[in-house]
Structures are given as C-alpha cells and as structure tokens.
Specification:
Layout (H helix, E strand, L loop, with lengths): L1 H8 L13 H29 L25 H15 L5 H25 L9 H21 L8 E6 L4 E6 L8 E3 L7 E3 L11 H27 L5 H20 L2 H7 L10 H19 L8 H18 L6 H4 L1 H24 L11 H6 L19 H22 L4
Antiparallel strand pairs: 1-2, 3-4
Helix pairs in contact: 2-3, 2-9, 3-4, 3-9, 3-10, 4-5, 4-10, 5-6, 6-10, 6-12, 7-9, 7-10, 7-14
Length: about 425
C-alpha cells in the first residue's frame, strides 16, 4: 500500500517519495518492520495463546527435558505469518506476480497448518489433520504455483550464454535478446548452470516444450510437498526449525537479488529473471519474522510455532526456490530438511523389514527424526544399529550444531554454482 501510495506521490515531486522506488530501501524497511512485529506484537499473541490455554500436548518419549515443555503455547506460527504479510502489504509491489504468488502460498500453507493444529488441540486428536489431507493441500499449492508460472506472461527468463572472444582466450557472458517463456532452471556442475526441462521430453516432438512444462509442474508439486514435510519434521527442538529456515532464507535472498539484477547476473554468469528482484522485499520480511520469532522460540522456548509455522516455513522456502529457478539446489541448501525426512523414511522401512525377516524390529537410529537421535540416551539392547553418542546431547547444543551445518550447506550451495 505504501509503495503504491508513494509511487503516486512521487509524480508531484514530494521530497522522499522516490525512496520507495529503491528495492534496497523497501527490503531494509521490511526487515525492520517484521522484526518489530514479531517481537512486540508477538508478545501479545503469546499472552493471548496462554489465556486461551492453547498449550502443547507432549508425549513422554524418554527425551531429556521433554516433559517440562508441556503446556507451552503453540500455534505461534501465526506470529511468523503476520510478521511476513504485514510488511509485504505495506512495502510490496502488488502488480508483481512473484509477490502475489508468495503471499497466496503463505496464506494457503498457514491455513493448512492451522487446521492441523486445530485438530490436535480443539479435537484432542494427537495426529492432527489426516496425512492424505495434508498431501492434498500441498499438492494443491504446488499445482497453483506451477500452473501460474506456466500461464502467466510476466514470468519469463533471459538465459545467459557464454561467447568466446579473442579466439577463445576470453569468455563474455551475454543474454538472449528477448525474454522467453521456458521451463528453465538452475543446475550446478554444468556450463552456464542452466537446464531446460524440455530436454527430457524431446521424444514428444512438437510438444516437447509443453511436456517440459508438465514435468516442471510435477517437480514443483514434489518439491513443495517434500520441503514442507521436511520443515515440519525438523520442528522438534527449541529454535531448530526457526534458525535453520532463517539461514536458508538469507541464502535465497542473496540468490534472488543476484538473479533479479542483470548486471550481477552477467558478472556471475547466471540466469537473469526479470521482475524477481521484488521478492527481496518478501525475503527480508521472512528473515525478519524468523529472527523476531527466535527471540521467544530460542531455548528454553516460550512459544512453539506448531504446524501453523513449520508447514508454512517449508512451503515458503520451496515456492521461493521455484520462483527464482533454484529448486534443484534444495537438496544441498535444505540438506537438514532432507536428512530429517530420510531419517524417518529409513527408520520406518528398516524396522518393518527386520520385523518381517526376524520377527523383531530393529532401528537404525535411537529415535527419528534425526535430531531426537542425539537427544536420546543410548541403549544396550542391540536393537539400534547406530547407538552413538551413548550420552544424550543437550538440546541447545544440538540446535546450534545444526545451525552451523546449515550455514556450511548454504555456503556449499553457492560454491556448487562455480564448479562447472
């Protein structure tokens, strides 16, 4: 709103009105405003949740300090969502399709997570929303994003091309003369860092491009569901999902800024995505909301985000990555989410396999998701393949170590783009 208001006022040469034309100014303001909302207004929301007795129901799983969390206010993801949406409404350009898509995705994932938390608390259903309904919601959001990117004329790319100069002694990066509508994405370890999904549908002849878009939509759906579930599983320790998501958010914000600026894109030899720079405002609000929420969510947590927050965080990260054409970097950048997902899949599969073969189920980890493995005391009954460390690691130490790994993975993500 303020962006459009000052854009109008700038026509009358009002001093300071043109500040809102600068993306860096609006991004900085979004960061500050989101932190303010999360810390100041967030306190009131927490107090309100306490009055409503919206407390976490904790099952005794034998984890150190676990039962002390009983009754801690949950559904704090509302704080994160409000702290993102309000700065974007005030400072964002709502003629920009990328901003609109992020706002819609945020609200839809927030609604899905809220329904899950509501089922757990109001209906006293520990499993919350049935898994099939979660999947339907995630697939629905992925479908909306994928199809919008296909049909919207404003979502285009300008592919970078390397041109030899001085008889091959130097390389100059140039861009195609016009924007193109194509299912192109970023992939590491190859020349130009670009991959067209239509390469895999060449067998379709004249319909190869359409086939590439169909493949892109399917990948979008898978990425949205996988990352959303990964963030949901990671939300098990105080500040773990919040801090990890903030680190990923910073990395995505940098990629967004570079990919949305044709000068920096050319210098780094990466794809230029016209209009995507507006997402810097959203990314700044996202980072600020998480930093502000961490004020209350850091160990010992005064509030939990619940599925309202964790499903939304994963969905935001997935959709943002897809919009800036970096979805294939997610296995590295969101490596913690990936490992948390895999630990649950492997644990379940191995237990079922050994129970079918021997009659007694064995486990790979002491407990899954992976962060609980380190939190749980070791056992000596031979039922666990990886039984180290023997002693439980303090929760705060596990969280910080995962943050450090997250920072390493973010750096590694940028490094992969320079290895060709």
């Amino acid at each position: 709103m303020l962006y459009h208001l000052f854009d109008y006022l700038s026509e009358f040469n009002i001093p300071g009105a043109r500040l809102f034309e600068y993306l860096t100014f609006r991004s900085g303001m979004a960061l500050i405003l989101s932190i303010f909302i999360a810390t100041v207004i967030g306190r009131r929301i927490i107090d309100r949740l306490q009055l409503m007795q919206v407390g976490e129901i904790v099952r005794n799983l034998g984890l150190e300090g676990q039962m002390s969390k009983t009754g801690t206010p949950t559904m704090g993801g509302v704080i994160i969502i409000i702290s993102i949406i309000v700065p974007c409404l005030l400072l964002g350009d709502f003629t920009n399709v990328y901003m609109l898509l992020m706002i819609v995705a945020t609200l839809l994932f927030g609604l899905l997570g809220f329904l899950d938390d509501y089922m757990k608390l109001a209906k006293h259903n520990k499993d919350g929303l049935k898994g099939k309904f979660k999947i339907v919601g995630q697939v629905g959001v992925g479908l909306i994003v994928g199809l919008t990117m296909y049909f919207s004329p404003d979502i285009v790319v300008r592919e970078n091309i390397e041109r030899d100069v001085n008889h091959g002694e130097d390389v100059e990066v140039v861009y195609k003369s016009v924007d193109e509508k194509a299912p192109i994405t970023t992939i590491p370890f190859v020349k130009g860092n670009n991959m067209n999904y239509a390469w895999f549908t060449q067998w379709m002849g004249d319909y190869a491009e359409a086939g590439g878009w169909i493949l892109f939509v399917l990948v979008t759906i898978f990425v949205v569901a996988a990352v959303s579930n990964g963030a949901n599983l990671t939300d098990g320790l105080d500040g773990l999902a919040t801090g990890t998501s903030a680190i990923i958010g910073v990395a995505l914000a940098i990629m967004c800024y570079l990919g949305g600026n044709i000068i920096y894109s050319s210098y780094l030899n990466i794809m230029y995505i016209p209009g995507s720079g507006e997402l810097m405002v959203y990314a700044s609000a996202f980072i600020g909301a998480l930093v502000g929420f961490l004020w209350y969510n850091a160990y010992p947590a005064q509030v939990f985000m619940g599925d309202t927050g964790s499903l939304t965080l994963g969905g935001i990260i997935a959709v943002f990555s897809i919009l800036i054409r970096k979805e294939l970097l997610i296995p590295v950048l969101c490596g913690i989410f990936l490992v948390e997902n895999l630990s649950v899949i492997l644990q379940t599969a191995y237990f079922k396999y050994t129970k079918r073969k021997t009659g007694t189920g064995r486990r790979i980890f002491k407990m899954a998701p992976l962060h609980h493995h380190f939190q749980k005391q070791g056992v000596d009954d031979g039922g666990v393949v990886w039984n180290h460390p023997k002693n439980a690691v303090p929760e705060s130490k596990i969280t910080v170590r995962f943050w450090i790994i997250g920072i390493f993975l973010a750096i590694l993500t940028f490094i992969t783009l320079k290895i060709r």
